Amino acid sequence: MAGFVSHFTNRLDAKGRVSIPAPFRAVLARDGFEGLYCIKSSHCSAVDAGGNELLAEIEKRSENFIKLSPDHDALAIALFGESENPKIDGDGRMTISEMIRDHTGITDQVTFVGLKYKFQIWEPEKFREYSAEAQKRALAMLSGQAPAPSQGEPV
Amino acid sequence: MAGFVSHFTNRLDAKGRVSIPAPFRAVLARDGFEGLYCIKSSHCSAVDAGGNELLAEIEKRSENFIKLSPDHDALAIALFGESENPKIDGDGRMTISEMIRDHTGITDQVTFVGLKYKFQIWEPEKFREYSAEAQKRALAMLSGQAPAPSQGEPV
DNA sequence: TGGGTACATATGGGATACCATGGGAAATCA
DNA sequence: TGATTTCCCATGGTATCCCATATGTACCCA
């Protein structure tokens, strides 16, 4: 019901593992997905993660294209070929893969950010910067002024 | 449940064998297909591979043509005559055939790419190039802009 | 209200299982 | 019978499982 909310920062151990925040684990458990579904965010240096709800959202995008067509293949490679399915161990931890490390710049700490139907995996400092920027944009939008695009697409 | 997701690169041994990634093997086992179904991709230098789910998708496409018609025969030759059924040995390996080598340019390494209902077999460097391109096309397609065909026609 | 106990979570580390890979030997084919 | 394929086993590295500990928090009882 609640979805992923709030954010948490945890330490990466020597084996490259990190605890997924307990509240997020609870959401995942209710969602019923085996493990975790992870895909690079196309517009910021974070990785989107979630379960069936996120997967359904992603699958919806490719439904309009005919399978075996060049368009569908390209889309499927971008969506599924470039994503990962990390397992979650008995203690609620996941391992941060090469792909995630490369795309996020994570070294020894990980910030988990809830976005309701999914959550994001960030390098803590990069998240702080992005978050500050997002605040400004949100304020500008709410005050009715013209948005300040600055970077990519909206979240 | 998950289908073929993510991508993996494995080494080809002296006998021309390569390990099929364990997660893909698990999907194939669930699918129940004996061995592997392989067919050249019509629009890129990769080979499509999978089990019953892929086969069903291909058959669906040929249903649009009347059996015994020249069109159907031509299609049947293209789809089934040009395909192969490599076995999977006890250790989860397949041998890369002459056909696959020719069509993909594979020499000593193989990249397996999950596309949900099937996976593709690529020469690693070619995959990197194609994937970067696919990423751009996907963004264009999903943002509702005109797609960038760049290459060929649909199957 | 204060003290203490039980539980949950994050984290560390040893042991084990899995997996990709290499290579020998038997079997198959032409 | 020579070449190729299939089966089987060995090995090293990695990921997974399992248990231990610390820190905190909620709860309970006097």
TrEMBL record, chains A, B:
<comment type="similarity">
    <text>Belongs to the MraZ family.</text>
</comment>
<dbReference type="GO" id="GO:0005737">
    <property type="term" value="C:cytoplasm"/>
</dbReference>
<keyword id="KW-0804">Transcription</keyword>
<dbReference type="GO" id="GO:0003700">
    <property type="term" value="F:DNA-binding transcription factor activity"/>
</dbReference>
<dbReference type="InterPro" id="IPR035644">
    <property type="entry name" value="MraZ_C"/>
</dbReference>
<keyword id="KW-0238">DNA-binding</keyword>
<dbReference type="Pfam" id="PF02381">
    <property type="entry name" value="MraZ"/>
</dbReference>
<dbReference type="InterPro" id="IPR020603">
    <property type="entry name" value="MraZ_dom"/>
</dbReference>
<keyword id="KW-0677">Repeat</keyword>
<protein>
    <recommendedName>
        <fullName>Transcriptional regulator MraZ</fullName>
    </recommendedName>
</protein>
<feature type="domain" description="SpoVT-AbrB">
    <location>
        <begin position="83"/>
        <end position="126"/>
    </location>
</feature>
<dbReference type="GO" id="GO:0009295">
    <property type="term" value="C:nucleoid"/>
</dbReference>
<feature type="domain" description="SpoVT-AbrB">
    <location>
        <begin position="7"/>
        <end position="52"/>
    </location>
</feature>
<dbReference type="InterPro" id="IPR037914">
    <property type="entry name" value="SpoVT-AbrB_sf"/>
</dbReference>
<dbReference type="InterPro" id="IPR003444">
    <property type="entry name" value="MraZ"/>
</dbReference>
<dbReference type="InterPro" id="IPR007159">
    <property type="entry name" value="SpoVT-AbrB_dom"/>
</dbReference>
<comment type="subunit">
    <text>Forms oligomers.</text>
</comment>
<dbReference type="InterPro" id="IPR038619">
    <property type="entry name" value="MraZ_sf"/>
</dbReference>
<keyword id="KW-0805">Transcription regulation</keyword>
<keyword id="KW-0963">Cytoplasm</keyword>
<dbReference type="InterPro" id="IPR035642">
    <property type="entry name" value="MraZ_N"/>
</dbReference>
<dbReference type="GO" id="GO:2000143">
    <property type="term" value="P:negative regulation of DNA-templated transcription initiation"/>
</dbReference>
<dbReference type="GO" id="GO:0000976">
    <property type="term" value="F:transcription cis-regulatory region binding"/>
</dbReference>
